[in-house]
Amino acid sequence: MAPITNPIGCDIDFCFSRHEVPPDQLLWLLTTAETRARLKTQDFAQIWCAIRWRDIVRISAMRIEYHRQKDDTKRAKPSCNLQRRFGFMRGSLDHAQSSSACEHGQIASKYITASVWCCLRLSVVLHFHRTTKDVSRMSLSNPFLASIGILIFTLAIYAFKTRNAAHYPPGLPTLPLVGNQFSLPTRKPWETYFNWSKQLHGDVISVWALGQLTVVINSKKAAKELLERRSAIYSDRPTPTMIKLLGWDFNLAWIPYSEKWRVRRRILHENFHAQAVLAYRPLQKTKIRGFLKGVWGDPGEFGRYIRITAGAIAMSIAYGQGGGDPEDDKFVRAAEDALSMLSYSVFPGATAVNVFPFLRHLPGWLPGLGFKPFAARCTELTTNMKNAPWEFVKQGMADGTAGPSMASTLINRMREGPVGEDDEQAAKDACAITYVAGADTTVSAVSTAVLALLLNPEVQRRAQSEIDKVVGRDRLPEFEDRPATPYSEAVYREVLRWILVAPLSVPRAAFDDDVYEGYFIPKGTQIIANTWSMLHNPEEYPDPEAFKPERYLTPDGQLTDDDMKYAFGFGRRVCSGLHLADSTVWMIIVSFLSIFDIVPAKDKDGNDIPAEVDCSDGVVSHPFPFQCVFKPRDKAAEALLTRLGDMDSED
User: Which segments cross the bilayer (predicted)?
Assistant: First the structure.
């Protein structure tokens, strides 16, 4: 018989006569059919003694690579016997057979089959060597053998994926099963992703956690290509299990790309496109004047009045009423409570039920399942937040006391024609989204502006000088003054960049397989846009941690083309209320700059209380609480403040 050779280069006949070959070669021989047919039981035991455990994974990967080189162009079908014996692998085998898996170098079923049988045969040998020399007593049904086989199979697949990681965007080394789970940041993940991107020299990176691939986009170039030009692929959104349990799956941010999403998006667009928001300007000015009067009377409580003002604008647009103060308005209070419970429950891995959805079906009294009563309470608040103000408007319309609002317009529209099953629910959802999306983001942006101006008094003075020149000292700024105040506009843009309202986008999901610059992004991959990385790139924004409005000005004082649009999102998932948010935040900033100096608060000894530049984690990021005082600039400012009541009545 002619000698049988293998990729390692070992002659099997030589091996039979001399057992003096390296373990790698012995292990290869153990896993070939020709060898098994010619080896006796005692030879198995002798050869096995020369093999080390760490060789198992290495040779399994070598065997897989051998099959790849030998049959690279053929599509292998999985063994029926293998599928019958190991039904739990059927899903993996079916996926490996897909054309996209083969085309992009994923594990084809033939290689899985080779790896599985290699591992299981070795486990049989191990068990036999320890227990008996009777081949007939070797059984795959033994639990010990099954567990060993599964363990080795897992390690083999891990070794293979590690060898072929270049097919995916670059990522840090992973651990078996858990991936990068133990490396995921708990604070400011956007900074960690940015640092990983620099370390890996890629603007898109892979993060693996418990089998889930997440691709993080860290550059404007990649975001523009994937999220805008290829928006048909990257506009879907996964809905985390915890979001469903909290009752927040009504929010546009977590609705998959579907008809349900399009209906709600259409309602919001009708009410918040660029021309529609012009109708809200009188309301915005009235509420902002209320903010100015509030901080004048209580200059240390600016944070409370920012929240009241933002809430009042959003609640009035949505429902035609609402003072914005959680202490006085039950609708606002319910929304604030629901928002606070939501805030830290949405990032991948933040709660176990997102990773193991079956936990939702277990009793809440079991250890570690405290999320269930928490979610039940949040669902109650969320349901009340959507239903109570809606029913209030309906009752007001019946009584003739309801004012104009988004809700009343939608209710009238439904009365005029047939109402579908989802129409009223979609209208309720859209009104609730108007409040929860508009109020919290406005609070974040305005708080950042106050902090930046407190820490940069020279920026305050320059912006005030420009406003005085354009507006004068006997009135407040108007929306029409915006084109004539480029430096104030630059301050506003730098506020959006410096501490982002949403440093990371809500995760999307790839709707189909895709390739970006040679990297494979499979269907179902979570996609996160690291907006913070894009707007803190030192190559585009030198000294990115500094607050420098002049970044957006040309040498002759005109605005550049960098309008900070990416702060509001990308592609089809861009913020629906961006025009309202843009005008509201700009108007609040220039209004308080025209009247107040923002100065440090004093401690009991008369020393300045320092303000810390840091921000919270969550869906919406806020600057950490700090203290300051809104001080009227001069007598002219005080005189203007006293006239605000009359100006409100004129409007």
Answer: 140-160
575 is in an annotated binding site: yes
* 8 Å CB contact between 113 and 82: yes
Distance CA 107, CA 112 (A): 7
Reported as half-sphere exposure (CB side, CA atoms, 13 A), residue 470 has a value of 22
Tell me, what's the pLDDT at 346? 53
Token pair for 465: 């000088």
Q: Which residues contact 16 (CB under 8 A, 6 or more apart)?
A: 38, 39, 43
Q: Which tokens go with 480?
A: 């029409």
SS3 63: helix
Cα dihedral 159/165/167/170 (nearest 10): 170
State the Cα angle at 60 between 56 and 63, rounded to 5°: 140
* 3-class secondary-structure state, position 88: helix
Residue 541 DSSP code: S
> Which domains occur in the chain, in start order?
12-167 (no CATH), 245-498+547-554+581-650 (1.10.630.10)
CB 240 within 8 A of CB 360: no
Pairing of strands 212-217, 526-529: parallel
- For the stretch 355-383, pLDDT in tens is 788 888 888 778 777 788 888 888 999 99
Are the CB atoms for 342 and 440 separated by under 8 Å? Answer: no
Query: Which segments of 203-317 are extended strands (E)?
Result: 204-209, 212-217
- Residue 572 DSSP SS3: helix
The count of other CB atoms within 10 Å of the CB of residue 174 is: 19
577 neighbors 568 (Cβ within 8 angstroms): no
Q: How far apart are CA 399 and CA 389, in angstroms?
A: 15
Please say whether the dihedral angle defined by the alpha carbons of residues 583, 584, 589 and 594, taken in this order, is positive or negative: positive
* Residue with token string 């608040």: 381
Phi, psi dihedral angles at 208 (to 5 degrees): -105, 135
| Alpha-carbon Rg for the chain in angstroms | 32
> Directed axis angle between helix 23-30 and helix 109-131, to 10°?
100
The tokens 């419970």 sit on which residue? 341
What is the helix (H) or strand (E) element at residue 208, kind and residue range?
strand 204-209
What own/partner pairs with CB < 8 Å and gap ≥ 24 does 377-381 have? 377/341, 378/245, 378/246, 378/247, 378/248, 378/338, 378/341, 378/342, 379/245, 379/246, 379/247, 381/334, 381/337, 381/338, 381/341
Count Cβ atoms within 10 A of the Cβ of residue 169 and give its class: 0-12 exposed, 13-18 middle, 19 or more buried: buried
**Cβ atoms 335, 435 nearer than 8 A:** yes
Structure tokens at 45: 């035991």
Residues belonging to the chain: 651
CA distance 40 to 542: 72
pTM of the model: 0.75
Q: What is the DSSP letter of 226?
A: I
Q: Each residue of 53-90: pLDDT tens digit?
A: 444 444 544 544 545 455 444 433 333 333 333 333 33
How many whole angstroms separate alpha carbon 182 and alpha carbon 47? 39
